[in-house]
Amino acid sequence: MEIDPFIFRLSIFILSIFIGYFVVWSVTPSLHTPLMSVTNAISSVIIVGAIIASFSSLDGSNISFSNILGFIAVTLAAINIFGGFLVTQRMLQMYKKKEKKKNK
Amino acid sequence: MSANLSSVLFLITGVLFILALRGLSSPETSRMGNFFGITGMILAIVVSILSVDIFFSNLIYFIVALSVGGIIGGIIAFKIPMTAMPQLVAGFHSLVGLAAVLVALSAYYSPDSFGLGTFQKIKTASIIEMGLGVSIGAITFTGSIIAFMKLQGVMSGSPLTFPGQHYLNALLGILIISLIGYLVVNQSTQIFWILIVASLLIGFLIIIPIGGADMPVVISMLNSYSGWAAAGIGFTLENTALIITGALVGSSGAILSYIMCKGMNRSFLNVILGGFGTDNSSNDKKDKTEKKPVKSGNAEDAAFLMKNASSVIIVPGYGMAVAQAQHALREMVDKLKKNDVKVSYAIHPVAGRMPGHMNVLLAEANVPYDEVFELDDINNDFANTDVAYVIGANDVTNPVAKTDPKSPIFGMPILDVEKCKSVLFVKRSMSPGYAGVDNELFYRDNTLMLFADAKKMTEDIVKHLD
User: Fold this and answer.
1) What is the pTM of this model?
2) Which of A41, B180, B308, B348 could disulfide-link B131, Cβ–Cβ 3.0 to 4.6 Å?
3) DSSP character for B296?
4) Which ipTM did the prediction report?
């Protein structure tokens, strides 16, 4: 009997939860704020759905309701992607070690 | 682009995102991690563009949408003060939630372009996944907006409760689950919209009873929800990158919620049911607090004590952030170090309004991260430290948590500040902290209260250190 492709996706999902579990426990507590902003940024990969929605049977002359929803979603996701990654970068640049160790 | 190739590339995106989180295990590798994250995102966008049939001229709409969002996001990222990170993150969560709702709606109205069937004849599995995605997305959206407003101070931080609240929520929860089930038989527009409205409503209702002190848990929880929403949409669109990312973000938020709950010794359910914690500006004066004698001092006393100490531990809390005292604090520490005083910082897991908030604020004030310690790593050091300088923290130092089983904060892990030879406590008044509990530490013989604004007091101490 053939396996439903859904089962494959479910497997990926479950295994990713476990990967997430172990990876996130290894994040140092001092970086928990950047962790939140970066997870925020990556969850905006939902933009891939927004792109499909934007261009679904779009032929230039008639823009459907679905296309408009798609473009709004692209804009929202873009705010998150740029905002999320840039603010994370800004924070990470602030983390510095003690200056006096010059032998490095 | 062939479906197989794009799937493989989406898988690579997922792997890059895993590496992005892995990088955060230490500040040295974190910047590289962020770079992996950005690469993964660019890859995902390029692959999606190449996989849809587009007329080249239509690409302009996409570029406009992306640029508008990008510019707004970029400006926010550079302008936002670090003290406002919690509300920024809450605001960003709401956008993920809303984007999930919009994508699901779009897929509902034009399922053919997503390969899910035809309008109102969507495949059974897809409509369930879509229902889940849209519902979690809507909950994330309104929940995050409430969290944002509470953190921004637009809305009172005190818990809003009313009779029958839990029954109403339970009822709505059952309604949502039933509606998702009902979509299998009847995919009418009304049902889909009622599902969205019910989810928007419950998102709003579950956050309003949660008080200001529990905000770290709320933000982490909404972080988790935004992940599950993305995963729901990922299942609908059969997209590996979204499924992997959703799972990563979902579990990340869940772990952070767990850490925050443990930091307050409260169960997750207890936080969700709400009603704990009061407004920032609560000045409810309890008569008994006035009775006991308190020793209070000024900046000169504090400067003298610290200058002559051999070791000082700084305990910052949210009050430091509110007063913007982190830069003055860093100046004070520099002066102390010149006097050969050993200085370190102790951070409680729930200090601040979101996980790791204090660390970012100290990093912003150029405090090296290897001088900043977490509760478990520093708690034993208080006993052989001369002075603890508590600035803007309160409940997390209250010894009552260890001694009084009747106290609402009993069992919460605390920083053993009272073991220091002397404790300097910067506070504006005697008012209790978020938990509404009187801090026994104020009345100890080795405690000196410094009644002032955290920034003003620290600046005054700096002057007296010369």
Assistant:
1) 0.90
2) B180
3) B
4) 0.93
